[in-house]
Write a structure and sequence with these properties.
alpha/beta; globular; UDP-n-acetylglucosamine1-carboxyvinyl-transferase, Chain; four-stranded mixed beta sheet; binds shikimate-3-phosphate; five-stranded mixed beta sheet; 2 domains
Length: about 425
Amino acid sequence: MPKQIIRPARTISGSLEVPGDKSISHRYAMLAALAEGVSEISHFSAAADCRSTLDCLSRLGAKVEIKDSRVRVTGAGLAGLRKSRRSLDAGNSGTTMRLLAGILSGQEFSSTIDGDASLRRRPMRRVMDPLTKMGARIEAREGGYAPLKITGARLAPIEYTLPVPSAQVKSAVLLAGLFADGVTSVIEPVRTRDHTELALAEFGARIDREGRAVRVQGRPRLAARKLEVPGDLSSAVFFLAAALVLPESNIVIHNVGLNPTRSAVLDVLGSMGAAISLVSVRSAHGELVGDIAVRHELLRGGILEGDAIAQLIDELPAIAALGPYTEQGIEIRNAAELRVKESDRIAALAENLRRMGAKVEERPDGLRVEGRSAGRLHGAEIEPRGDHRMAMAFAVAALGAEGDTLIRDAECAAVSYPDFYATLERLVER
Ligand code: S3P
């Protein structure tokens, strides 16, 4: 599927489930590999990114069996990983590379971990700095880019204040902390997703939070678990957005992760006028899960900025793509991190929104997208720059445009959501 045509639609309705949460799937798989015994993980993410993690873990000696969305991981205990004969391949996945860097830092062997062209452009210094402070030796390409050669060591615990709000960096340090003698602390000035903390507690590590500090006790015994991954809210958001683009839409998405450190997007859309309700909310392995129902309403739009950005970071492409469908437009500030994601998302959003006729002002740390008064979008050729969230955001924007849209290199959506276009096609009416 090198390209995908998205035809305009009249409305979208029905119910669906989305693949298991990508962030949680990575963490459950990694901890299962470090635990003693057999873990069974159901509704494991179908994302190519999570396959990269499983592939790396099996190269490191964990036994991984995959059947549909069920994954069985036989862990060999905290000290049980083995040196991989070949270089580890994180593919397109920043989470795989950064979190595994934490684990590899605590091993008695050295490893090389690499990724695709996009991942080789993403900053790794942010994990190299704290992991080096703990005692690992990490060599990278000039400037701190993959491939990384990580020589593990007996690690010393540190107290580390995150210079950028990043759950991946926090997690890399906490995972390295499992191999340190004593208590490792991470201070996060801005709260980020806490899946690592919740998963560590599930697998039996001693972890606690006090204000902005998270602490993990080194050298725990992790026990295998039977776990179910909730649906990925960051994937569900594209269907919420589609319902907000198309009049008379009504969608229900079942069993979606609603962790409060991830669900800011629901508050933001709600504050702009979206009719969103949560049903059957429950807790599973420390994570909140529930069904999300959304009905079409015309959105007011508004400004997104400040600390909220860190909790919305993966949803910003979908929100920006809604800009032309809002009354006042959407402005995103303080989001320079978007420039170092799978693509430079600020530039990619600005370029492709303009191709569809939107009025956009690009800024170093965000963008302003004009609302409905700037005119209706028209179909265009979209260049997602190999970035799954760009491809999906523009598929959604295209539903309300005049004329067909062609998404180049559309299969990049499989990085997080292999069945995305088929599911969208099943739910829209023309
Ligand atoms: C993730 C954290 C975020 C997010 C990424 C997944 C995670 O990245 O953008 O998609 O699973 O920890 P940063 O930690 O770089 O903000």
